């Protein structure tokens, strides 16, 4: 298999608009945000309720796909490390994994707690967080 196809199912609405201002992890001051799903996905989202734990899978569209090694957390005092051993967004396939808790649901708009993705980030999947389900 040479290629695969990933289609966005929605996008993130957030007050974070500048990648430089985004926290590296959600627990470092990320704001609440909205997952805005595309029309036609009502059945897929029908069983999402406030209090549910989800893992949001995003396409980190502003990431550099050519980077293979980084200084973890952008700290140049730390040794260069292969991206597969880090959570750096810079990587060959920049998928983001974001555990969140649902705060509210309004149709195809899902309000979630701390999410470090910037406004407009494509969502490629939403999965139940089995360790945090109701």
TrEMBL record:
Does this entry carry the keyword S-adenosyl-L-methionine? yes
GO MF terms held by the record? methyltransferase activity
Q: Where are the transmembrane segments?
A: none
Q: Which GO terms describe its biological process?
A: methylation
Q: Which Pfam families match?
A: TrmO_N
The keyword Cell cycle appears for this protein: no
**Cited InterPro entries:** TrmO-like_N, UPF0066_cons_site, YaeB-like, YaeB-like_sf, YaeB_N_sf
Give the PROSITE patterns listed for this entry: TSAA_1 (PS01318), TSAA_2 (PS51668)
Q: Which UniProt keywords apply?
A: Methyltransferase, S-adenosyl-L-methionine, Transferase
TsaA-like domain residues are: 6-134
Q: Which family does it belong to?
A: Belongs to the tRNA methyltransferase O family.
Give the matching PANTHER family. TRNA (ADENINE(37)-N6)-METHYLTRANSFERASE (PTHR12818:SF0)
Q: What is this protein called?
A: tRNA-Thr(GGU) m(6)t(6)A37 methyltransferase TsaA
Q: Which organism is it from?
A: Actinomycetospora cinnamomea
């Amino acid at each position: 298999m040479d290629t695969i196809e990933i289609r966005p199912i929605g996008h993130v609405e957030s007050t974070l608009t500048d990648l430089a201002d985004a926290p590296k992890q959600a627990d470092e001051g990320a704001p609440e945000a909205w997952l805005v799903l595309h029309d036609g996905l009502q059945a897929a989202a029908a069983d999402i309720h406030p209090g549910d734990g989800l893992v949001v899978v995003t396409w980190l569209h502003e990431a550099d796909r050519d980077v293979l090694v980084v200084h973890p957390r952008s700290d140049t005092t730390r040794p260069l490390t292969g991206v597969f051993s880090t959570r750096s967004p810079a990587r060959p396939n920049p998928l983001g994994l974001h555990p969140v808790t649902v705060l509210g649901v309004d149709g195809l708009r899902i309000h979630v707690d701390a999410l470090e993705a910037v406004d407009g980030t494509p969502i490629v999947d939403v999965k139940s967080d089995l360790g945090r389900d109701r």
